[in-house]
Design goal:
With about 130 residues, the chain is an all-alpha fold. It has five helices and no strands.
Length: about 130
């Protein structure tokens, strides 16, 4: 099996936590807020995995980053509505922040090394 980088592990953990917590979303918000949170979390993981397994040197981090930002807004909304306690909100917010920073680092690395970059350089950057 392919060893996936820390960004994938973090995204997978975020998806698990999000899916576990949407069970606690009140029935009135489940078809809207709960579903959107679940979809965003799953799309982050699936898209990230697809991008990581591509043979291309450059990863398309923009789409993933937009979904992470969307999930951040939804998590904040759930917290503001009193759906999530401080501990759950803190865990989810910290995880989305970490993923966002990792994506930013990858994008910066790719921009800096786009002309002379190689798949091996990108894999090295992903391990960090």
């Amino acid at each position: 099996m392919i060893k996936l980088p820390p960004i994938y592990t973090e995204a997978y953990s975020l998806a698990q936590t999000t899916l576990r917590q949407t069970v606690n979303v009140p029935k009135a918000y489940r078809p809207t807020l709960g579903r959107r949170m679940e979809e965003a979390a799953i799309e982050i993981v699936v898209t990230l995995r697809q991008e990581l397994l591509k043979q291309n040197v450059k990863l398309d981090t923009n789409h993933i980053s937009l979904r992470v930002d969307e999930l951040k807004v939804l998590i904040q909304l759930a917290y503001d509505l009193g759906i999530y306690r401080d501990t759950i909100y803190g865990e989810l917010a910290t995880s989305t922040d970490r993923i966002g920073k990792m994506l930013g680092g990858l994008a910066k690395h790719q921009t800096r090394h786009h002309s002379q970059g190689s798949a091996r350089d990108l894999r090295a950057a992903l391990r960090d």
